[in-house]
Amino acid sequence: MQNHKIITLALALAVTLATPAQAQAPKLSKSELILAQAVKNPKAYAKLALYKKGHSAKQWSCLAQLWGKESAWNHLADNPRSSAFGIAQMLNETSKSPIVQINKGLRYIEHRYITPCNAWNFWRKNYWY
Predict the structure, then answer these.
(1) What would the pLDDT profile of 36-90 be if each residue is shown by its tens digit?
(2) How far apart are CA 108 and CA 123, in angstroms?
(3) Nearest to 64 by CA among 80, 41, 46
(4) 26-43 pLDDT, tens per residue?
């Protein structure tokens, strides 16, 4: 159901961007626009989500590097040696939605490491987090 909503929102955003301003485009709420943009640009969504949690630009830098190493920010990244999947390379992840993956990844980091920089420091020593 969520994938259908994301696709619908992404299409609505594409129509809005591709047609003249006077054309009738679906009206999207701010949160719907954010969701549609997240499909197109997962890094922007992750940055916004991280800042909403009160983290700094330094923490964003750590997160960007961490998930860059884990998946190159590819929401379809699949580790053939484990069940890790997606942007955050969560074990047993089944969602192909970058939004779901990012939210789960941030919750995991918060629970286990408190901050992205703590997770990134652990990753640099162990090559996993």
Answers:
(1) 777 789 999 999 999 999 999 999 999 999 999 999 999 999 999 999 999 999 9
(2) 14
(3) 46
(4) 787 887 776 677 778 999
Question: How distant is the alpha carbon of residue 55 from its chain centre?
Answer: 16
pLDDT value at 16 more than 70? no
How does DSSP assign 61-110, residue by residue?
HHHHHHHHHHHTT-TT-B-TTSS-BTTTTBTT-----HHHHHHHHHHHHH
Reading the block at residue 67, the tokens are: 């998930």
Please name the residues in contact with 60: beta carbons below 8 A apart, sequence gap of 6 or more.
47, 50, 51, 116
Instruction: Give CA separation, 28 vs 6, 18, 31, 87, in Å.
Output: 12, 15, 8, 26
